[in-house]
Design goal:
Layout lengths: L3 H12 L12 H20 L1 H5 L8 H26 L5 H10 L15 H22 L5 H29 L3 H20 L11 H6 L7 H19 L9 E3 L4 E3 L5 H8 L6 H14 L1 H28 L1
The structure holds Phenylacetyl coenzyme A (FAQ).
Length: 321
């Protein structure tokens, strides 16, 4: 436990924008919050591959297939950077993965919705990656060094993800009547779940205040959500589509868009495992993990063989000397 003085010095470091590094002293709660947030973020990237992977074999052209494949692979990479960042805080990857599979750990609510048509892939790129970017650009300045550095890399890839989604929707929005309807329908279904990605209202958020004080989070849930609405409300005009919110209106005084009430009951249901695809997602994850056992075993055997070879080589070199 940190003494009063060291806790003060820790906060001073944070206030002076000095990054906290793995071997630095830190309050237990700071370590725990980072492990929770970074591992949840990693799980979100990994589970987040599932709704899109569903469309790789059905993408409408070779170009779209290659783009989607690259995007899903990026997400696997993001998950790996993030698990590695969380491991620097003293938790083992197996423990995090067990928590995900047992349902103890959370992952973003958004990935518990189904991808019914090709337009959903565009809507995920535009809205879901758009929401993720807003959050993650702010997190590039998070106080924990390994998390901040992982996010810089992640953000570079996320901006391509958002653009490819918007581009896919733009093509549909200029297509046949059926394609236009498909585009609008996907936006209607993904809009509200995307707003829920930012978490509960600030007044309901259990972690906001402390995480803002420790600069683990740089902006609050409501601040980020509002920036997202302001951005999407303008971009949707380029698509010639609408957002499914009758209350959406520019407020001249606040210079922000007012928007309607989120269905919080639906949000908490999804968070608690009762969303449309929660069960399916966890089963798919567990199956993929089991089927990957032989790869992990082979990697461990190879590493062991390499270690033995290096040890023998070093010993031989010493004997010669
Ligand atoms: N879903 O006190 P707060 C992506 C939980 S990455 C599920 O406000 P906090 C890339 C929260 O954990 C998307 N649970 O929590 C991609 C807490 O419960 P706990 C993920 C949620 O942590 C794109 C409780 O509610 N991004 O999309 C959600 O301060 C396309 C109270 O909430 C990140 O993880 C939710 N939406 O703020 C991949 C970014 N919201 O743990 C594939 C990093 C809240 O105390 C395809 N994370 N909860 O039991 C964060 O910025 C924060 O963790 C928040 C939540 C803002 C998500």
């Amino acid at each position: 436990m940190l003494t009063h003085d060291t806790a003060f010095l820790f906060q001073q470091k944070i206030d002076n924008e000095i990054k906290i590094e793995p071997k630095d002293p830190m309050p237990q709660a700071y370590r725990k919050t980072n492990i929770r947030q970074i591992s949840q973020h990693a799980h979100s990237e990994i589970v987040g591959m599932l709704p899109e992977a569903n469309w790789i074999s059905r993408a409408p052209s070779l170009k779209r297939k290659a783009i989607l494949l690259a995007k899903v692979q990026d997400e696997a990479g993001h998950g790996l950077y993030l698990y590695a960042a969380a491991e620097t805080l003293g938790i083992h990857r197996d423990e995090m993965i067990n928590d995900l599979h047992s349902g103890t750990a959370k992952y973003s609510s958004i990935f518990n919705y189904p991808t019914l048509t090709w337009a959903d892939i565009g809507a995920i790129g535009w809205l879901v990656d758009g929401a993720a970017i807003l959050n993650q650009v702010a997190l590039c300045r998070t106080s924990y060094g390994p998390y901040a550095r992982a996010l810089v890399r992640i953000c570079k890839e996320e901006s391509f993800h958002q653009r490819q989604g918007f581009d896919a929707l733009l093509v549909l929005s200029k297509g046949t009547l059926q394609q236009k309807e498909m585009c609008q329908d996907a936006i209607n279904r993904w809009w509200w779940p995307s707003l829920m990605m930012f978490g509960p209202r600030d007044s309901e958020s259990t972690n906001n205040d402390q995480s803002i004080k420790w600069k683990i989070k740089r902006k609050t849930n409501d601040e980020l959500r509002q920036s997202f609405v302001n951005m999407a409300a303008e971009q949707v005009k380029v698509l010639g589509m609408t957002l499914p919110d009758a209350a959406l209106k520019w407020n001249e005084e606040s210079k922000q868009y007012n928007f309607g009430e989120i269905n919080w009951e639906e949000f908490w249901n999804v968070v608690k495992g009762k969303g449309p695809c929660n069960k399916q997602r966890l089963e798919a994850r567990k199956k993929a993990h089991e089927e990957g056992t032989w790869v992990r075993e082979a990697a461990i055997a190879y590493a062991e063989k390499k270690r033995l070879f290096t040890d023998t080589f070093k010993k031989g070199a010493l004997e010669i000397a």
